[in-house]
Structure formats: C-alpha cells, structure tokens
Structure prediction request, 226 residues.
Amino acid sequence: MLRYLFLPALAMLLQGCAVAGTQGTLPQQRLADRLPPRIGDFARQEVAAIDGNSGNLRIRYAEQAQGAWASVFVLRPPGAPLPDGAGSEAVRRDVAEAALVISLYAAAQPGTRIERGPDFSMTAQGKAVPSLRCAEFRMGTPQTPVLKREMVCSSGVEGMLVRVRATVRHNPKDMDPAHLYLSGFSGRVTELMRGAAQPTAAESGPPARPAAGTPEAPLSGPLQRL
Prediction:
C-alpha cells in the first residue's frame, strides 16, 4: 500500500527535476545566447568557458579587414548580483583593474608609446544611470604612423558583470572614428544583452571563418600603476 502512496510523490519529484533541467541555464550562458553571430563589422569566432566550472564565458569576435578584435566577458561577480548599468563600485573597480593590466602589458613592449585618454561613460537615451563605463588607450611607435586603439568597458547586466575589450589599428587622422567604432561595438553588445534591441538581419547571418592574427593580451596578471 505504501508504495502506491509514494508513486505520485515520486512522479512529481521527477517532473520537478525535468523542469529544473530545462530551466537550469546559467545566467552567463543566457546572456551570451543573446549575442548574434555578427555585431556590426565583427563576426563571432568562438564561445569559451573560463575560470573552470564557474560558468563564466568569453565570446570572441573579429573584424578581418582592419584586423580588429573584441572579447566579451560574461562573469558572475564574487559578491552580490550587480545592479544594472555602470553606476556600481564593482564596475568602476573592474574598469580600473583592466586598464592597469592593459597599461602594464603595453609598457612592456619595446618602443611602444602609450597614452591613456580620459575615462568616459555612455548613457542610453531616457536612462539616468550610465550603461557603460570605459577606459581607452592609444598606442604606437615613433617609427610608424599606425596607432593601436584599446578600449575596455564594463557594466552590470541582470546581476552579471559584462566586460568588453576591443582593439583596432588606425591612422592618426582617424582618432575620432576609431573611438566611435569601438565604443559603438561595446554599446551594441550591452544593448543586445539587456534585450533593449533585437539583432538585425545582417547580424543574424552565419559567423565568418576564424580570422588570422595575434590574440590580445590576457586580462589577468599583476597590476601596477605606471
């Protein structure tokens, strides 16, 4: 008799497990799934897990004509979930630490000049809290007029920390277009992740084949102020 009483409860338990399995997508993956194969000129190259079994992800994009690269990191913060936007101390700290790593790496390259522009934030229309906080660098050598532009931006999206690091090479006369190129990509990433916009038909096309080139410096390692 008892086994017949337990059967409905067992069925309900198994059903609950099945539902949990279908709804158990990690928040990092849920946000990553909102990014299309293409964003502007950038085509997705890979989605890779980082930090072991944490669920944290890196989505890598590349633009082959200009040799531009971008990595989107979707990270679970170590403490409480982050508020949306770039107004939190955790976002400010993330940008500062990533900027110091970029500075350290660039300074270690022989003959490289590095200039850090003023940090800036971007605020979506109708919003009070900035949607992104960014740091920007310009790099070059005395022998070549071609500059390398690096930008790192961070924000809170549905409790997660989203960091976008992008780089492009450009001529000195293209300072403003290069700035808009990278900041536009970063803004589009967070706009898509927040669900504030849907991918266009062009963005939803198939990703390009992996581009050849040198991967960017890792965003990890010792930090120091230059």
